[in-house]
């Protein structure tokens, strides 16, 4: 059998595309079927990350992501499933704020127009959303629920206020998210060198769930560096805090150790560059100048970089020794290290060559 193809028939989508899109919308063909009882067998929730509606419109990355879930949604619909495939707008926050500052406008004067444009482009792409479920995070009927959630977390004691170091742009006079700090330590918007500032922040007490979260990381087949970052974010609940006196000074420092079994093997101490005690350690000593320079330099490094495998570990000696309560008479040199995190434990860590990071550091500065 031969199949005869007529040369005159050309596939020309522009002739019918807009007509079909119009029809789909009019007939509401992608509306989630909620007329029959939902069972685990017939329901599918297919969700993409909501875009933030910038003035520039969709970019090719959006098209890539949204095509993926659209294919899935269509596949499941063809199998007779009740598919919920919604779209919404992550319209709050820095992207909208930055765009508004640039255009010298109120963000709410720009957001609705941007949303309309995104939606128009999505219609052109033929994406199969149930537009009856559309949400915008700037809509009071939506954000009343994020506020409600905040209150529930607060009532349960899972939310607290704490003074913590954050990235700060001295020129824009604003706190910055990790993502806004470029690798060279400058602010992506204005190019100024960012600093660290200690400000009151709301913090989720995720350490309450640390054990469960850490345990479940074992189930993830993710790159090693990402898993390590997750581990640092989760924070260790388990560990011990040990008090040390500092030789020749009338002060003591508290260290955190996640590996109590190795306490006897620890040989040195590292302290986070933001630690307030450093000033007292080096005051009026020959080490003051070098440590200050080192601290200024590390302030510019975004925290996420510090947990990457390729991050170069650097340190500077404070000239001070802590007395080891586990090995009487043993003096442990105190180093300031660029990888020590202020929000991990007490910001001071007992170290030995057992931890991979400590080991690299110890080998370098032995
Ligand atoms: Zn700035």
TrEMBL record:
Pfam families (UniProt xref): tRNA-synt_1_2 (PF13603), tRNA-synt_1g (PF09334)
SUPFAM superfamilies (UniProt xref): Nucleotidylyl transferase, ValRS/IleRS/LeuRS editing domain
Signal peptide: none
Gene Ontology CC, one term: cytosol
Domain annotation Methionyl/Leucyl tRNA synthetase: ranges: 48-182
GO biological process: leucyl-tRNA aminoacylation
E.C. number(s) listed in UniProt: 6.1.1.4
Presence of keyword Protein biosynthesis: yes
Keywords from the named record: Aminoacyl-tRNA synthetase, ATP-binding, Ligase, Nucleotide-binding, Protein biosynthesis
Record has Ligase as a keyword: yes
Residue intervals of the Leucyl-tRNA synthetase editing domain: 231-366
InterPro entries membership: aa-tRNA-synth_I_CS, Leu-tRNA-ligase, Leu_tRNA-synth_edit, Methionyl/Leucyl_tRNA_Synth, Rossmann-like_a/b/a_fold, Val/Leu/Ile-tRNA-synth_edit
Record-linked Gene3D superfamilies: HUPs, Isoleucyl-tRNA Synthetase, Domain 1
Entry's Gene Ontology molecular function annotations: aminoacyl-tRNA deacylase activity; ATP binding; leucine-tRNA ligase activity
Family as reported in the entry's similarity comment: Belongs to the class-I aminoacyl-tRNA synthetase family.
Alphabetized PANTHER family for the sequence: LEUCINE--TRNA LIGASE, MITOCHONDRIAL, LEUCYL-TRNA SYNTHETASE
Protein name: leucine--tRNA ligase
Organism per entry: Candidatus Roizmanbacteria bacterium CG17_big_fil_post_rev_8_21_14_2_50_39_7
């Amino acid at each position: 059998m031969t199949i005869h193809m007529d040369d005159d028939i050309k596939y020309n989508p522009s002739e019918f595309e807009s007509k079909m899109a119009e029809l789909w919308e009019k007939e509401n063909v992608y509306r989630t079927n909620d007329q029959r009882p939902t069972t685990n067998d017939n329901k599918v929730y297919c969700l993409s990350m909501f875009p933030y509606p910038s003035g520039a419109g969709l970019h090719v990355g959006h098209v890539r992501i949204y095509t993926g879930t659209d294919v899935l949604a269509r596949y499941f619909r063809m199998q007779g499933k009740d598919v919920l495939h919604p779209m919404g707008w992550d319209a709050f926050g820095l992207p909208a704020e930055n765009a508004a500052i640039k255009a010298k406008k109120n963000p709410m004067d720009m957001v609705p127009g941007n949303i309309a444009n995104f939606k128009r482009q999505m219609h052109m792409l033929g994406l199969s959303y149930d537009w009856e479920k559309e949400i915008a995070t700037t809509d009071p009927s939506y954000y009343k629920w994020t506020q409600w959630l905040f209150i529930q977390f607060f009532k349960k004691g899972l939310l607290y206020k704490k003074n913590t170091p954050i990235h700060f742009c001295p020129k824009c006079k604003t706190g910055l998210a990790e993502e806004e700090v470029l690798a060279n330590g400058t602010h992506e918007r204005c190019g100024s060198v960012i600093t660290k500032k200690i400000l009151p922040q709301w913090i989720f007490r995720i350490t309450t769930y640390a054990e469960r979260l850490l345990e479940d990381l074992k189930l993830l087949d993710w790159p090693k560096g990402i898993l390590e970052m997750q581990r640092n974010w989760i924070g260790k609940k388990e560990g011990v805090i040990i008090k040390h006196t500092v030789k020749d000074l009338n002060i003591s420092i508290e260290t955190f150790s996640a590996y109590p079994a190795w306490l006897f093997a620890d040989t040195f101490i590292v302290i986070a560059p933001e630690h307030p005690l450093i000033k007292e350690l080096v005051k009026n000593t020959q080490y003051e100048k070098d440590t200050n320079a080192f601290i200024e330099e590390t302030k510019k490094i975004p925290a996420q970089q510090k947990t990457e495998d390729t991050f170069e570990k650097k340190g500077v000696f404070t000239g001070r020794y802590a007395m080891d309560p586990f090995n009487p008479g043993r003096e442990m040199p105190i180093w300031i290290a660029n990888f020590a995190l202020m929000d991990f434990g007490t910001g001071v860590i007992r170290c030995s060559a057992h931890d991979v990071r400590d080991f690299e550091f110890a080998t370098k500065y032995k």
